[in-house]
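Here is one chain, start to finish.
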Amino acid sequence: MENQDEAPRPARTSRGARVLVASVAGGAVLGGVLTLLPWERAAPRAPAPAPGARAHAAVAAGVPASLPDLATLIGEREARLRARPKDAVSWAVLGSAYVERGRRTADARYYPRAERALRMSLKVRARGNAQALGGLAALANARRDFRAARGWAEAARTAEPGRWTTYPLLIDAYRGLGDHEAARASLDRLRELRSGPAVMVWAAAVYRDQGWREDAAAQLADAVAGARTPAERAAYLERAGQLAWERGDREDALGHFRRALRIDPDQRAAQAGQGRALAALGRTTEALNAYRAALAGQPSPQYALELGELYESLGLGRAARAQYDLLRARVRGAAAGGADEELVLGRFEADHGDPAAAVRRLRAQWARQPGVEVADALGWALHRAGDDEEALRFAGIATDATKGGGVRSAPYAYHRGMIERELTRYGPARRHLQEALRINPYFSPVHARTVREALTELGEPSVAEVPDFTGPPCRSARCA
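Its structure:
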């Protein structure tokens, strides 16, 4: 399961050496034959796929494509549609390519273009057009409109039940809506229809949500090893790095992110991940440079929030405020393209702005997409706004496996612990704050410090907190 950047294992090396010796000997014999038969030539290698063809194959399979290949594909399909405006397939391909480019660049201006192209595909061919329906589901997921994504993906499944690429779209939508049972059922169906690296990545996502981190890591390692293109492999390495980061393994996370960037320099999620890991390792200058580079290529509101908090932890208030201003601007830009970044804005407002405004935004989010991420953010905003009783209810949804919160998340455990501390539930508070540090002691340059301070203030549990299970004294002879 090791990826191809790693050195081969010794056993494989020795076998490879034997194969090489045999190959050299065979080559000498073959060379003599070819000397006798000069008119015979080895069969030429098949030419590598053209950039547009590579991107088309990736878009059709729902796997990552490189940005240069996507640009080529978009140009080719736009030219084709000028000549053949009734080509429903090309409209669907173009729309899906716009979605992927918008997602990779955090440029929501591509999303209205994608919607027009996909709807044009449906207009040209309304019946059985699962490709366009799936493209609209992918667009809705990218915009974080998970209810719409579920509707479009279910329509695509009805149009073509055996189309395997529909099921990752359903998994994404169900996860966003907090319906983990439906996500797992969709994964089961996906596995009946298909195997391979892309399926492993979606299995890893479902396993991660259930708290099965080792299983998720194994699936991602296999996906990296089996990836068919550099862009695909880099994307899977980034996900493996993110999983390592979530469990607090800074060095492993950094290694994955660096390998992803060597393969695909446009893998900006890996660049932001590199910033997180470097900051946790105390390599602050490198971390700042990594975040700046990530934002230059993919100006995501989430990256701006993380960089702002890193500046804040360093006492650089003016630089932090500049990033927070960028965050607000990017949220407005996303909204203009129909994308929903209210979750990031709500998190920002809860910690750095107006907690009451954060509660209003996040209540609306909860009504639209009641997933675990939103439950955690709303619970924390309620705490910051002073309503700890209701805050604890949402924090419980985010952290209680019986309510869907199976993912092991340091920020979620931290939020719950701080809410319980405010409610003077010191035992559970201590337990959840300690859990946050066990999961990832470096989860935030700002909040990890707060956890340690709160635990110091709470101190060790007192004897009065320990229940008395001894019962009344036993006077029977059997007790002697």
